[in-house]
Every structure is written in structure tokens, then in C-alpha cells.
Amino acid sequence: MSKPKAPFEGHFDLHVPFIDTISLACESWGEGRARTRLPLRREITNSRGEAQGGSIMTALDFAMSAAARSAYADPVGAATIDMNTSFLAPALSDLVIDAACIKAGRALAFCEAEARDAKGHLVARGTATFKMIHRKEP
User: Fold this and answer.
1) Domains defined along the chain, listed by start
2) Rounded average pLDDT over 19-25
3) Could you report how far apart the first and last alpha carbons of the chain are, in Å?
4) Distance CA 138, CA 122 (A)
5) Alpha-carbon gap, residue 82 to 68, rounded angstroms
6) Strand order in the sheet with 122-134
């Protein structure tokens, strides 16, 4: 995997404002894998003080898309066409999300990810299918 980077420094030359809003940081990516970190902040919690499910799903989706994109030699885009998430425990601390691309085809990529809390407990698990958008030469 690549070295840890500042949030989105050089991340596929993209800026995603919503990712900044939830303070999701991409720590590393490469060779079909990615790791992100979602800090637990008041702005992303539910009424019980736990990370709200939608913010966890966003973190899983982003990590899986980064893993998918890093599985290709040429620059590609990734559009989520299907995603499933299972919530297994409340998120009461920062989360680390590890994602992997388990199959990278010409048109589709299949990925999986796990979100773990500061103690290493599994909080959520996701799978997703991405339509890969191959950039055309000008």
C-alpha cells in the first residue's frame, strides 16, 4: 500500500466536499486495498452519541471505491451501483475502515469492507459493486 497521506492529498486528483464535511481521511490505498479513518465527532452522531449509520455507510462506500480504483493500472472512475451494509455494534469511537477489491473486471468491480472501533471490534461490514468508468483519451 502507499504511504499515509494528508486527507485526500493526491487522492485520484479528486476533491469530494462531503467527505471533508464528515472528516473522513484516506490513510492508504493501492493494489486493490484502501484504509480510511472516520473520527467520531458530534456532527456525525445520532441521539445516543453513536456514529450515525449514514456516516458509517459513506465511509464504507468511499473506502471500497478507493480500493476498486486502485486495482486498475489506468485512471478510472467508480460509480456505486449496489451496496449492502450490516451494522453489528454501536460505534462509540473513531472507526478504521479496511476495504478490498475482490474482483476487478473491465466494467464492474466487487468490493468488501469492515469498520472497526478503537478496540478493534467489528462495528459494520459492507459489500458493494461499482461500475468502472474508463477515461477516454482526448
Assistant:
1) 17-134 (3.10.129.10)
2) 92
3) 30
4) 45
5) 14
6) 25-30, 33-38, 95-104, 108-116, 122-134, 76-87
